[in-house]
Amino acid sequence: MNKGLRIRVRGQVQGVGFRPFIWQLAQRFDAVGEVLNDPEGVLIHALIAHPDPFVASIRDEAPPLARVDAVEVEPFVFDTLPTGFEIVQSQGRGAETRVTPDAATCDACLADIRGDDPRRRGYAFTNCTHCGPRFTILHGLPYDRAQTTMAGFEMCPACAAEYADPADRRFHAQPVACATCGPQVWFESAGARREDAIAEAAACVRQGGILAIKGLGGFHLCCDATNAEAIDVLRARKHRPGKPLALMGTVAQVEKFAAPSEADWESLRAAAAPIVLLQKRAALPEALAPGQARLGWMLPYTPLNHLVLDAMDRPLVMTSGNLSGEPQVIGNDEAREKLAPLVDGYLMHDRDIARRLDDSVMRNTDHGPIVLRRARGQVPETLPLPTGFEDAPQVLAFGAHLKSAICLIKNGQALLSHHLGDLDDALTWDEFIKADADYAGLFDHAPEVFACDLHEGYRSSEHARSRAIEGQLIEVQHHHAHLAACLAENNWARDEGPVAGIILDGLGLGSDGTIWGGELLLGSYVGYERVAHLEAAPLVGGDAAQREPWRNAVARLDLAGLSAVADHLFADQPVGILRQAAQAGINTVASSSAGRLFDAVAAVIGVQAGAQSFEGEAAMRMEAMASGPFDDPYPFGADLSTAPLFQAIAADVAAGRDPAIMSARFHAGVAEAFAAPARALVESGSAKSVALSGGCFQNALLLDFTIRALGDVPVLIHQKVPANDGGLALGQAVIAAAQALADR
């Protein structure tokens, strides 16, 4: 009679209301026993007359924020026959399970904020097990209140009763609070603190002021998105002349100013609440995103966001609260110190932020969603590793130098960290080191193998070498890592065979010591062959070559025998000095970079005459403006020579052809030039599929053209992992894991 079941549930099952969900199932199916959290997930001991429908319901009816990877069932013998079903205290320490990402305010909590109950009406920290902060308040596992930044807020009797009631949606919601016992919000300006926080903040913004708002993962800088003068002030104070600014608005405001598709609405309304790039509909100041056809929008995702927008009648700019190039500010004192020159007021609160998390950024394409920045709401969600990696050792990969992120492999799962940023910045470097320790502690990670980029000058690679005294170090070529990241995301089995990888990005050190970036690889996790690449051109001036597109234009025009054209187009630049440096090899390296090719073309056709104010500006402008005969690609020569390309472009420039048409022809030309040899590899049987990776494939137009040009061959693309260097650590990690497994 004491024979029951031991049911282990693995996945994203803590902090999402899973135990009360199991308790409610037990009432429905007349089960007795217990449910608890432990380091491996959720554990159930149950006596039940009809176990099959009970077990099926665990997977089929899981709470909205849960992700069930496995439900394992085995016999269990009770020492003492239970008489009811209980939710018992968490057991053990450590992390075999996963932490739930932060989630946008649910409809039920939004109704509470706008309802009649004085405990929650207008309360900026209302949440339940279906929404609210998770990763940004967590210090350690198991996910209990004492391990969060809510530990210092003692629950009032009413909140404690909700927290203890399995039938309440706030049962064991660790951040549960109300106006009586929880965190509080206030407005500060000129050293004075005012308690009518929302009204004061709204007045500041309406009057053209710049407001700092403390959010989930850091502060935002906020201003009126319809006020061109306020936007100019924000840009001037932040020294951000051209990079697009993110917007936040209500559903009605998004509908008015943008043209979201059904897929866009699904992304906007998701629990992750990312910034989504949307086509413009109605006019807003051009200064929000100069030269762009899309604006980045997000819906309000915290109660505080909703309350501020409720007090306004216009959309808001919501950009990261930081000094240019530095990480986002998270502490109140830090905000007062660093943001004082930028803002006219602060909307503060007293709940601490455990870790910095920028807003995630994504866009929808004709081929599905793509992630541009993986951060709040998307981390620390894990990715299951493909078949063949079940016995992989624990691996830690350190990613790139720009758009840095780290990746942990453990128990058949890959955990790609949040976006960390540019490691040249001292504070970002500090955050990188903190993230290494933070993720190791939070996920009980003890790596045996470390992976990094080939480039010895990357700070991430230097750090990997210092860590590798604890284990094996594997250095991974940059574009091979891009290829492997795409394979891993698409669940490509370890022994499934080679693919053709079209890898187009900015810069990555090649195995030959030159700078790669326009590559056709044939490879798998364990190795690769460089089948073809863009004709290399001199990259002169180091970082200046990335900032100033004319430098790349001169190099490409000279290669094409068009030096006279370069002299004419760039008569106001020191072209002669550039050529002398290239000839002497001074601060010059050969590069096949597709990103620098985009820069060169943008400069020749007049899209980006001056220096870029942010990485990728020229390419983004070209994508935004492209229109016309997409079936008329510019030609490339044999072995991806760019001479025919620039000869055709120069002829169009001389004829006064519309730059929008030239941009379209260029996109189509790049797509066809790489698709043809990649398609041939599949058709010959050398490759089983084509993988598209590298930062250039954030360009939806290029992505679409390339997939079209590939025809009916199988194609693998990124959807959950950034195609840019933000996904590089995943590729490094699976390559290192594959090598370690092969060495056994």
Task: Explain how this protein is built.
- The protein has 744 residues and is α/β, with parallel strands linked by helices.
- The chain has 23 helices and 29 strands.
- Strand 15 and strand 16 form a beta hairpin.
- It starts with a strand and ends with a helix.
| Derived structural class | alpha/beta
* N→C terminal distance: 47 Å
* Cα-based radius of gyration, to the nearest Å: 27 Å
Query: Any low-confidence stretches, pLDDT <50, length ≥5?
Result: none
Task: Summarize this structure briefly.
The chain has 744 residues and is α/β, with parallel strands linked by helices.
Keywords:
23 helices, single chain, 11-stranded mixed beta sheet, globular, alpha/beta
List the helices and strands and how they pair.
Elements: E1 3-12, H1 18-28, E2 32-38, E3 41-47, H2 51-60, E4 67-77, E5 85-87, H3 107-113, H4 157-164, E6 185-189, E7 192-194, H5 197-206, E8 211-214, E9 219-224, H6 228-238, E10 247-248, H7 251-257, H8 262-268, E11 275-279, E12 294-298, H9 303-310, E13 316-320, H10 332-338, E14 345-349, E15 361-365, E16 368-373, E17 383-384, E18 395-397, E19 407-410, E20 413-416, H11 426-442, E21 449-453, H12 459-467, E22 472-476, H13 478-489, E23 499-509, E24 515-523, E25 528-533, E26 537-540, H14 543-547, H15 549-559, H16 563-569, H17 575-584, E27 588-591, H18 594-604, H19 617-625, H20 643-654, H21 659-683, E28 690-693, H22 700-710, E29 715-716, H23 728-743
Parallel strand pairs: 2-5, 8-14, 10-12, 11-15, 18-21, 21-22, 23-28, 28-29
Antiparallel strand pairs: 1-3, 1-4, 2-3, 6-7, 6-14, 8-9, 9-13, 10-13, 11-12, 15-16, 17-20, 18-19, 19-20, 23-24, 24-25, 26-27
